[in-house]
Write a structure and sequence with these properties.
Elements (H helix, E strand, L loop, with lengths): L2 E17 L5 E18 L4 E6 L6 H12 L7 H13 L7 H19 L3 H5 L5 E8 L12 H14 L3 E5 L11 H15 L4 E5 L6 H13 L4 E3 L7 H10 L3 E4 L6 H11 L4 E4 L1 H4 L2 H13 L4 E3 L4 H7 L8 E6 L24 E3 L12 H6 L1 E4 L1
Bound molecules: magnesium ion.
The site of magnesium ion (MG) has 4 residues, from loops.
Length: about 375
Amino acid sequence: MKITSVDVTVFSYATHRVADSAGHSHPGAETQAKMALLTLDTDQGAQGYAFAPPEVIRPYIVSAYFRKVLLGQDPFDRERLWHDLVHWQRGSANQLTDRALAVAEQALWDLFGRQVNQPVYKLLGGFRDRIPAYASTMCGDELTGGLSTPEDYAQFAERLVARGYRAIKLHTWMPPVSFAPSPVMDVRACAAVREAVGPDIALMLDGYHWYSRSDALFIGRKLQKLGFTWFEEPMEEQSMASYAWLAQNLDIDVIGPESLSGKHHSRADWVKAGACDILRAGVAGVGGIGPCLKVAHLAESFGMDCEIHGNGAPNLAVVGAIRNCRWYERGLLHPFLDYEQPPAYLKSIVDPMDEQGWVHLPTLPGLGEDIDFGYIAAHTLSRE
Ligand code: MG
């Protein structure tokens, strides 16, 4: 089988999410947003798909890298094609990003699954058919009744537990929120949530990402007393030494790195340096499903868990294929938004959760996204 075309369709859809001046999403009035669908076609009719923000797979990326590497190749040779794309990264002056790499590789996995009529998580390893979710909140805001006070977080946490979640991760306040960053407010929110949900719900904190060592230590010690499960990305991840220092000074599990570049290579260095207790990787951040699995297997080899960053079909496929991950990150969630409602370009959500907090892995062949091709055709803005 040979890949015969690599195309991107950009289309519009309605959203109630707005990004603030630092890029964090919050609820807002309905606006039109853009999404892109990468489509791989083959000479035998097999197809693979992956969604991405249009700027990640803009026309230059598709013509300069994707088509050069993929056209005429066997789509089942995922590892070789991934390495060929990685080779192009070195001379691309940072144009070919890990995120773009992940989108191309994701479409190859989707194509493989559709062609052999199996869900991708089964092809990757097939460890389980369901996984507990943790509710991952949006960042704090200054919306009345939203996530603007510790009491707001506590009330929302009670709703999340009633919905079935057995674990909750707080993203607290970050600039441009007027009083952020504030270690004291972060701790207040964490204490209010612990008070509201009791001792049996697992809690985690993902706070402001550029705290000093002193602020991170202050927060971490409070989280230990509150019985939190992990402490995520309080500091700049480029400083591995700071994380090694923090992990040494805290009993609570320090998790990372999430946003650091370097794919599985940089994560191996973190293990060697003792810079985290739990490893972290997401498909988009490390350049694909393949490298994300490599991180998880690396962690397993060192007796560590690897918690997968982010929601969505490719991350769900990875958590379904590995043993050393306790939860699926479901979110981002906010009291004003309905996560259970699929975006207009999907017929159903990929990660339905039952009343006991289990997310069931998709059974559709490929990555399991129930794509509404009719909607996309009717709302297409461009096709390259
Ligand atoms: Mg995070």
